[in-house]
UniProtKB/TrEMBL annotation, chain A:
Species the sequence originates in: Eiseniibacteriota bacterium
Residues spanning the membrane: 138-158
Protein name per the record: Zf-HC2 domain-containing protein
Keyword Transmembrane attributed: yes
Keywords, alphabetical: Membrane, Transmembrane, Transmembrane helix
Domain Putative zinc-finger: 6-37
Location of region: Disordered: 79-105
InterPro entries: Anti_sigma_zinc_sf, Znf_put
TrEMBL record, chain B:
Similarity remark: Belongs to the sigma-70 factor family. ECF subfamily.
Name under which the protein is recorded: RNA polymerase sigma factor
Coiled-coil spans in chain: none
Superkingdom of this protein's organism: Bacteria
Gene Ontology MF terms: DNA binding; sigma factor activity
Gene3D superfamilies per the UniProt record, alphabetical: 1.10.1740.10, Winged helix-like DNA-binding domain superfamily/Winged helix DNA-binding domain
Domain RNA polymerase sigma-70 region: 44-111
Alphabetical list of InterPro entries matching this protein: RNA_pol_sigma-70-like, RNA_pol_sigma-70_dom, RNA_pol_sigma70_r2, RNA_pol_sigma70_r4_t2, RNA_pol_sigma_r2, RNA_pol_sigma_r3/r4-like, WH-like_DNA-bd_sf
Keyword Nucleotide-binding included in the entry's annotation: no
Boundaries of every RNA polymerase sigma factor 70 region 4 type domain copy: 137-188
Biological source species: Eiseniibacteriota bacterium
Alphabetized UniProt keyword annotations: Sigma factor, Transcription, Transcription regulation
Gene Ontology biological process terms from the UniProt entry: DNA-templated transcription initiation
Record has Chloroplast as a keyword: no
TrEMBL record, chain C:
Endpoints of the signal sequence: 1-26
Source organism of the structure: Eiseniibacteriota bacterium
Protein's UniProt name: DUF4097 family beta strand repeat protein
A Pfam match: DUF4097
Region of interest called Disordered, as start-end residue ranges on this chain: 265-286
Domain DUF4097, residue spans: 85-270
Keywords: Signal
Nucleus listed as a keyword: no
C-alpha cells in the first residue's frame, strides 16, 4: 500500500475498524515507513493520554444549593412573596423519609408507620388489579369487535396522508368522550387492545431479525429504544389510570389516559412495522 | 447506609421493591428519590457530582458553562427520574442527559452551525495558532477544539463510547461521528506536537 | 423509455449483475437517470446506513448518483413514467468492519411525491414541493422547503424541518423534533423526544408527548386551536405581545408557572387547586381570547414565557 492511502487509514487501523485485508496492507506499509510508524505511535500516545484523563473533577464550588433551589422549588418563605406560587404540591407522602424524633424508638415508630402505609397501598393495588381483571373478562367478548376497529382506526390515524382528517377532526379522546357516554368502557377496550399489542411488540422487538446480518448492534439498539419507551408509556398509563379511577369525571384525566393509550398503540404498531420491514 | 435509612427502607423488601439495595445503594436511593425524598436526591448528587462535572467540563470546555450544565443535569435527573429504567448504571444515564442537554441548549441559544454540518472549513485547524514557546496540555487543547470534534473525542476517546452509541446520542450518522473524531485527533496532534513537527492536514 | 416494467426489471437485473461482478474491488458508484412525470411518485426503500439527499429540480427526470457500500448486493429499480421505485438489497452476514457509508444523491421533479424509508441513514431533502413521506429508525431527517403534505416518522432519529406545508404530521419515539414552519394543520407526537416549534402561522396544532418536553414558540393565531398534552414532559409556551387567546392550563401533579400572564389576563385566577382530579389549573384570557390554547400534563410542568 502506498504512503498516502496508508496514512489516511492509520486512525481506522488504530481503532481496529479495518477489515483484515486492509489491516495487513497497512501493517506491510508500516514495516517500511518510519514516518507512519511515528505517526501511529503519536496517535497511540494521544489516545492513551485521553483515556487516562481523570473522569472525576470536583466542581470548584458546591453546586447543591442552586440545584436544590431549582429542582425543589423555592423555600416556603419565598413562595408566598412570589405571587404565582409555583410551589410543587408535596408528592405522595414519602413514607421512607425519616420523620419524627430521631433515635431508635422514633425510627422504629417511623418504620412501623411506613410499613403499615405500604401494606395499605399494597392491598389497594391488589384490589384494583382484581377489579380490572374481572371487568376485562366481562368486557372482552363484547368489545372484541370494537377493539379491532379501534386498533385499525388508531394505526390509520398515524399513517394518514390526507390532511382533511387532520384539519377537520377533533382528537380521538374528544371524539370518544363526546360520542361515548361511558368513557370507561372505551378505555377498557384500549387496555385490551394494548395488552395484546404489547406482548406482540415485545416479542417482535425482541426477535426483530438482523436486517442484513450486519448490525446486531443496530437491531439491539432499536429493541432497547422501543422497550425503554414502552416502559415509559406503561408507567404513564399506570399513573394516569390510577388518577382517573380516583376521579372518573375529570375530562383532563380521560384525555391524559387516552393520550397514553394512543402513544402505546402508536409505538406497538411502529414496532410491528419495523420488524416487518426487516 | 445509615441506621435510620436502612430501617426505613427495609419494609420495601416485602413488596418486591428495592430489596437489592443492600447490594446496590444507588438503586435504593433512586427509588427513594422517585418517591420524593430530597435527602436521597442530595445523596445521589453527592455521589455523582464529580463524575458529572468532569464530563460537563470536558464537553463544554468552559468552567462556567460546565457548572451550569452540571446543575441542569441534576435538576433534570430529579424531574425525569421516572424515565430512568435501571438498566445500566445511573452514571451512564446522567452522562447521556448531559450530552442531550448540551445539544438542546445549543439549539435553543441560536440556530448556529449544526453538529453534523459538513463545513468545508473542517480541514483548517480551528485551534488558535500557538506561540512557539507555548505547549498546550491535553485538557486545554481539548477545550479549544471545535464543538463537534470535541464532543466526538470526549465521548469516544475519553469516556469510551462507541461510534454507534455516540451517533445515537447526538442524532447524527456514524460516519459523521467518525469524521469528527478523526478531525479531533488530527487537530490535537497538531496542537500538542512540539514546534516544527506535524502539521494539521 | 419502456412502458412495461419487465424491460426495466431486466435492466435492473443487468445493473445488479454488474454490481455483483464489480465485487469487492472498489466501492460501487451509481449514476442513473430515469424519466419521471413532474408529479410522479418516487420511492426509495431498504436503505440501511449512510445518507440520502433529495433535491427537487425542474427536469422531468430522476437522477440518482452516489456511492454504495459494499454490503449492497442489489439495486432493484422499477421505473415507469409515473413512478420510479428503488429498492436496495444487502448481502447477508457480517460486514466485518464498515469503513464506508452509502451516500445517495437524488434529484427529482420538484412536484414529485417522495417516499423514503431508511434504517439508520440520514435523509435530507430540499426543494421538493410534492407530498413527502419520510420514515427512519435511527437516521436523522433534515428537511427544508415547501412540500405539499409532510409525514415524517422516526424512532430515535431526530427530525428537523424548516419551511411550509399544507399539513404536517410528525411522529417519533425518542427522536427530537425541531420545526420552524408554517402550516394550516400540525400534529406532532412523541414518547420521549423533545419538541421545539417556531415559525408560524400555525393555526391548528396538536402536540402530544409522554416524557419529552414541548417548547412551542410560534404566535397563537386568531381563532386558532392549540392542544398540548404531555404526561411527564414539560410544556413551555412562549407568549408574545398582543396575543389574543384563551388559555386553559391544567396539571395533575406538576407546577404551573404562568407568571405575569395569570395576573394580567382577564378572568385570571391565581394558580390554585384545580377541579376534582387535577392538582393545579389556571384559566385566563389575553386580549379578545379568540384563539384557544389548552395544555394538560400529568406531572410535567406548564410554563409560560414572554416572547418577542
Amino acid at each position: 500500500m502506498n504512503h498516502d492511502p496508508a496514512r489516511d487509514l492509520l486512525q481506522d487501523y488504530l481503532d481496529a475498524a479495518l477489515d483484515e485485508a486492509r489491516a495487513l496492507d497497512v501493517e506491510a506499509h508500516l514495516r517500511e515507513c518510519p514516518a507512519c510508524r511515528d505517526e501511529l505511535e503519536a496517535l497511540r500516545a494521544l489516545l492513551r493520554a485521553a483515556a487516562a484523563l481523570p473522569r472525576r473533577v470536583e466542581p470548584p464550588r458546591d453546586l447543591w444549593p442552586e440545584i436544590a433551589a431549582r429542582a425543589l422549588g423555592r423555600a416556603s418563605g419565598a413562595a408566598a412573596a412570589s405571587g404565582a406560587g409555583s410551589e410543587r404540591p408535596a408528592p405522595p407522602a414519602s413514607a421512607l423519609a425519616p420523620q419524627g424524633p430521631r433515635g431508635l424508638a422514633g425510627a422504629r415508630r417511623g418504620a412501623q408507620r411506613a410499613w403499615s402505609k405500604w401494606r395499605q397501598a399494597w392491598g389497594e393495588w391488589r384490589r384494583i388489579g382484581a377489579e380490572w381483571r374481572q371487568a376485562w373478562r366481562g368486557l372482552w367478548p363484547v368489545f372484541a369487535g370494537t377493539v379491532a376497529v379501534l386498533v385499525i382506526l388508531l394505526s390509520s390515524i398515524f399513517r394518514q396522508q390526507e390532511q382533511e382528517y387532520l384539519m377537520a377532526a377533533p382528537t380521538i379522546a374528544d371524539l370518544l368522550a363526546a360520542e361515548c357516554s361511558e368513557p370507561e368502557r372505551v378505555l377498557a377496550a384500549y387496555e385490551v387492545a394494548g395488552a395484546g399489542a404489547r406482548s406482540d411488540a415485545a416479542r417482535l422487538a425482541g426477535e426483530s431479525p438482523d436486517p442484513a446480518g450486519t448490525d446486531g448492534a443496530e437491531s439491539g439498539a432499536l429493541s432497547s429504544v422501543l422497550a425503554e419507551n414502552l416502559a415509559i408509556i406503561d408507567r404513564a398509563i399506570t399513573d394516569a389510570r390510577r388518577a382517573y379511577e380516583a376521579n372518573p369525571d375529570s375530562p383532563q384525566l380521560i384525555r391524559l389516559l387516552a393520550a397514553a393509550y394512543r402513544a402505546r398503540a402508536a409505538l406497538t404498531s411502529r414496532a410491528a412495522e419495523t420488524a416487518a420491514r426487516s | 447506609m445509615s441506621g435510620i435509612d436502612a430501617l426505613a427502607a427495609a419494609p420495601e423488601a416485602g413488596i418486591g421493591g428495592a430489596g437489592a439495595e443492600a447490594e446496590d445503594p444507588v438503586a435504593g436511593l433512586v427509588d427513594q428519590a422517585r418517591r420524593g425524598s430530597e435527602a436521597a436526591f442530595e445523596r445521589l448528587y453527592r455521589l455523582h457530582a464529580s463524575q458529572a462535572y468532569g464530563l460537563c467540563l470536558r464537553l463544554t470546555g468552559d468552567r462556567t458553562e460546565a457548572e451550569a450544565l452540571t446543575q441542569e443535569v441534576f435538576v433534570r435527573m430529579w424531574r425525569k427520574l421516572d424515565t430512568y429504567e435501571g438498566r445500566g448504571p445511573l452514571g451512564a444515564w446522567l452522562r447521556s442527559l448531559a450530552v442531550h442537554l448540551l445539544i438542546d441548549n445549543r439549539r435553543r441559544a441560536a440556530r448556529g452551525p449544526r453538529l453534523d454540518a459538513d463545513d468545508g472549513a473542517m480541514a483548517r485547524a480551528s485551534i488558535p495558532p500557538r506561540r512557539v514557546e507555548e505547549t498546550l496540555d491535553l485538557e486545554r487543547a481539548i477545550a479549544r477544539l471545535p464543538r463537534g470534534a470535541r464532543l466526538a473525542f470526549v465521548l469516544h476517546d475519553v469516556e469510551g463510547y462507541r461510534h454507534q452509541e455516540i451517533a445515537e446520542q447526538l442524532g447524527v450518522a456514524t460516519g459523521t461521528v467518525k469524521a469528527q473524531l478523526h478531525r479531533a485527533r488530527r487537530l490535537l496532534r497538531a496542537a500538542l506536537a512540539p514546534p516544527g513537527e506535524v502539521s494539521a492536514r | 423509455m419502456a412502458r412495461r416494467s419487465g424491460l426495466e426489471t431486466a435492466l435492473a437485473a443487468l445493473l445488479a449483475l454488474s454490481l455483483a461482478a464489480a465485487g469487492a474491488a472498489a466501492q460501487q458508484e451509481i449514476d442513473r437517470t430515469f424519466p419521471l412525470a413532474p408529479d410522479g411518485r418516487f420511492v426509495l426503500r431498504g436503505l440501511l446506513a449512510g445518507s440520502v439527499t433529495v433535491t427537487g429540480w425542474d427536469r422531468p427526470e430522476v437522477h440518482v448518483t452516489g456511492l454504495l457500500e459494499r454490503m449492497i448486493e442489489d439495486v432493484v429499480i422499477d421505473a415507469q413514467p409515473e413512478r420510479v421505485e428503488i429498492e436496495l438489497e444487502y448481502r447477508r452476514g457480517k460486514s466485518g468492519h464498515r469503513d464506508e457509508d452509502t451516500r445517495l444523491e437524488i434529484r427529482l421533479p420538484r412536484a414529485a411525491r417522495v417516499s423514503i424509508a431508511t434504517v439508520s441513514a440520514r435523509i435530507g431533502a430540499s426543494g421538493v414541493d410534492g407530498d413527502v413521506n419520510l420514515s427512519t429508525i435511527s437516521g436523522g431527517i433534515d428537511l427544508s422547503g415547501r412540500p405539499k403534505s409532510l409525514v415524517l416518522e422516526s424512532v430515535s432519529g431526530s427530525i428537523d424541518f424548516e419551511g411550509e406545508a399544507q399539513g404536517i404530521e410528525i411522529q417519533t419515539v425518542s427522536g427530537d423534533i425541531e420545526l420552524r414552519a408554517a402550516a394550516p394543520a400540525l400534529q406532532l407526537q412523541t414518547v420521549s423526544g423533545d419538541m421545539e416549534i417556531r415559525g408560524g402561522p400555525l393555526p391548528r396544532v396538536r402536540c402530544q408527548s409522554v416524557s419529552g418536553d414541548i417548547d412551542f414558540g410560534a404566535p397563537f393565531a386568531p381563532s386558532g386551536n392549540y392542544e398540548f398534552t404531555s404526561h411527564s414532559g414539560d410544556v413551555l409556551l412562549v407568549v408574545t405581545e398582543g396575543t389574543d387567546a384563551a388559555f386553559d392550563l391544567s396539571t395533575f401533579s406538576g407546577d404551573i408557572d404562568a407568571g405575569a400572564f395569570a395576573k394580567a389576563g382577564e378572568g385570571a385566577r391565581k394558580t390554585r387547586r384545580g377541579r376534582p382530579g387535577m392538582g393545579r389549573e389556571n384559566r385566563f384570557t389575553l386580549g379578545g381570547g379568540s384563539a384557544e390554547v389548552s395544555a394538560t400534563t400529568f406531572s410535567g410542568d406548564l410554563i409560560l414565557e414572554r416572547g418577542d
